[in-house]
Amino acid sequence: SNLVEMNMSFSKLGLSSPLLNALTDLGYTQATPIQQQAIPMVLAGSDVIASAQTGTGKTASFVLPLLEQLVSNNTLRGKRIRALILTPTRELAQQVATAVEQYGKYLNLSSMAMYGGADIEAQKQRLIQGVDIVVATPGRLLDMAFQRALHFDALEVLVLDEADRMLDMGFIDDINKIV
């Protein structure tokens, strides 16, 4: 159903206790319309394209179900990643990676942000054990892929965050290579 309730709690969206506890810690009580619509669709395994204004909780609408899906099937190998969130800028990569850490604090999942201007060797070291969730800018991700620092054969989920902005910034060739 596409009906949006005014006061829907996160517990009605099919999220597990560790995620609900993290949301409570953050003071989140009611799901926003984008979260009410997107979370059940992502949990059901659907591909989702969503657009909503800034401040409506878009990041939580894809990070929460992503965490839920990954924790239920927790197998990780070296230099492998299970979920990739592509962002247009370093700042957004940092913001999304922080959200992943905050929402997933009670889960046994690893994550990292990967972007240019940061120490590439430290990022490579982090990838050696494998990382469940990588939040990356296209350029640094491609650098890492070409240097064989990570492989995509275990990838379960790809998120293009602010895809319109990435296209506006000229990342179309990079996105096509990544896909």
Can you put this structure into words, describing what you see?
44% of the residues lie in helices and 11% in strands. It has helices at 17-25, 33-43, 58-71, 90-103, 120-128, 138-146, 163-168, 172-178; strands at residues 81-86, 111-114, 131-136, 157-160. Helix 5 (120-128) links the parallel strand 2 (111-114) and strand 3 (131-136). The radius of gyration is 16 Å and the shape is globular. The mean pLDDT is 90.
Percentage of residues assigned to helices: 40-55%
Strand order of the largest sheet: 2-3-1-4
Q: What is the count of helical runs? A: 8
Categorize the overall geometry. Answer: globular
Give the tally of β-strands.
4
Q: Determine the strand fraction and express it as a percent band.
A: 5-15%
Low-confidence stretches: none
Secondary-structure content class:
alpha/beta
Order of helices and strands: HHHEHEHEHEHH
End-to-end gap: 31 Å
Instruction: Give the integer mean of the pLDDT values.
Output: 90
Question: Could you give a short account of the major beta sheet?
Answer: 4 strands, parallel
**Radius of gyration, rounded?**
16 Å
